[in-house]
Amino acid sequence: MSEGPVVDRRMLESLVCPVTQSGLSYDAERQELVSKAARLAFPIRDGIPIMLVSEAREVA
Which of 4, 27, 28, 49 has the most CB atoms at less than 10 Å from its CB? Predict the structure, then answer.
C-alpha cells in the first residue's frame, strides 16, 4: 500500500527553512518538512513541499 506520492530526497535535502535558512528534517509519516530552529512544519502535498509560513504549523 502506497502512502502517497514519491518525494525526491535530493530535492528535500536542498531545501532550507524560509524563516531561518537552516536545514529541515523530513517526517515521512506526517509528510512534512520540519524546521527545528523556527519550530515550524511545512506540509508536503502531492509530492510538492509548501514552503509558505502561512501554510506551516507550529511544533513544540
Answer: 49
